[in-house]
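ARCHIVE CARD
Drawer: 12
Card no.: 0347
Subject: one protein chain, sequence and derived structure
Cross-reference: see card 0346
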Amino acid sequence: MINKLSLRMRITVMVGVILILCSILLTSMVNISAKEKISLLDPAMVVGVMIPSTEMEENTSSIIIDGDVIYSKPIINIDEKSESAIQISHYALTPTVKQLNVESALLCLAMIVIGTVLTYYLSGKMLLPVSNLSMKIENLSENNLSEKLVVPKANDEISSLTKSYNTMTDRLLVAFENQKQFSANSAHELRTPLAVMQAKLDVFEKLDSENMADYKELVADMSKQVNRLSNLAVNLLEFNNVDTVELLDDIDVYPLVEEVVFDLEPVAKAKGVSVELKGDGFNVIGNDPLLYRAFYNIIENAIKYNKPNGKVQVDITNKCVRVKDNGIGIPDAMKENVFDAFIRVDSARSREMGGVGLGLYIANETFKKHNAIVEISNNKPEGTIFNIKF
């Protein structure tokens, strides 16, 4: 039942229970101590000052202890010449003990009430930033991610929680912006070949030609654009798989890269590029098809964007796969952005080869998922080096 209460009420109830237990314990200890002290007065003779009463009735006197009158009764057989001393009986102090118990109980109750009220008030003040954070989260949407909470000056858990919230919204904002940009770029990439196909069909319809060469040209153009759409669809599916697949395979990297090189031999021969593989293997835990595709994209790019009769070297050593080519290279200004989605170093050349600008992006995301980083440097005298470090 207490779990259904608000955090403020739970803190108040908890502190209230602690106050009750502590107050009862303290009051009991005080009362027990007082009774023990008073019990010492019962068997012993307590020395006080016997004051003959001048204002009261005759033959009465009062007992004063530490300046306070605690008892008054008729004097019975008191030797006025002896020291002022009497034996205080237990029944004579009973009213005082009862009064002490009542006053202690009332004081205990007052402390509990005041402490509980103060706890409720102060906990509300302290938890106000948490309440504001809760309201902010309830109203959170992609339209107000840029709004930040004011971080309290106190260096406490609430301040840390507020900072974490602001950091989270920053990441969400970046993710939403990237998603919007990715969707817009995808739509553009899909629209472009469709627009080209539509334009070709419109032109061919107006020609009203029965020439077979015109038909063949149209079919070739359509085939080219369909192939581009197919590549885009494959890349989008691969991009989606990066975040969903599980990394459970024990992969020997050398045979995997060797298989990639073997599968790319037709592409390399058509381009007139030689591919050389050497080094020692090592094992990683990951997803075999996903990692295969990532290496495929890197090595395929090294072949496609190479020069005729060029060379690609793949070295595997010390948990690092190095892919070197002597192709057109990557300008320094683009090295930081080359792994972004739909980025092409040479847009015209990439379109001619059917690229959509997602190959390196998917490869980089795949390597990140496998706890690997990709570094780019210039090859001497020309070309590019990709270092994939696990």
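Annotation on reverse: Residues 42-60, 69-89 have pLDDT under 50 and may be disordered. The first helix runs from residue 7 to 39.
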